[in-house]
Amino acid sequence: MLRTQLNGALKDAMKAKDQRAVSTLRLILAALKDRDIADRGKGGVDEGISDDEILQLLQSMIKQRHDSIEAYNKGGRQELADREAEEIKIIGRFLPEQMSEEEITIAVADAIKDCEASSLKEMGQVMAQLRENHAGCMDFGKASAVVKDRLG
User: Which of 13, 41, 126, 149 could form a cystine bridge with 21, CB 3.0-4.6 A?
Assistant: First the structure.
């Protein structure tokens, strides 16, 4: 489903001659193809990675761009920071609406309760459950901080 949306968006961007969208979508599809190949090498399914894994890939691409923006701003390269921000908007079109900090806190509390976690040793279990239940709509960096705070 998401894979066909990405391909359709690439075709639309090419027709509209939107070079930034075309290059960003090609980067996404190339990363997707790399993940498919890597997954196949591990004995994975031939159809490629699932939509949840695609959402995780898109989130990691957005995180990389946020990190790049920070570095470009420190280096005084505003034009590059602006380009990264445009790419974030393009990638973000394929993600569901992100959870608020309050919603993340509630989801973390529920996951801790479900996993019966009581120490930082069980943080992996909690994060795995959050990834399973909230793929694509949760900032796992923020969630990780909340989990550490709760269990620490």
Answer: 13
Q: Distance between CA atoms of 58 and 60, rounded to whole angstroms?
A: 5
Distance (Å, rounded) from C-alpha 5 to C-alpha 82?
Answer: 25
Q: What is the largest CA-CA distance in the chain?
A: 54
**Does the structure show a pLDDT above 70 at 39?**
yes
One-letter amino acid at 51 equals D
pLDDT digits (tens, 9 = 90+) for 123-141: 889 898 888 888 778 888 8
Non-local CB neighbours of 29 within 8 Å, separated by 6+ positions: 6, 7, 10
In this prediction the pTM is: 0.73
Here the tokens at position 107 are 């989801």
In the block, which residue shows the tokens 């992100």? Answer: 98
Give me 31's structure tokens. Answer: 């990363």
**Centroid of chain to Cα 113:** 25
**Would you give the distance in Å from CA 51 to the centre of its chain?**
11
Q: What is the pLDDT of residue 52?
A: 81
Determine the Cα angle at 82 with ends 77 and 83, to 5°.
100
Are 112 and 106 within 8 A, CB to CB?
no
CB atoms within 10 A of CB 57: 19
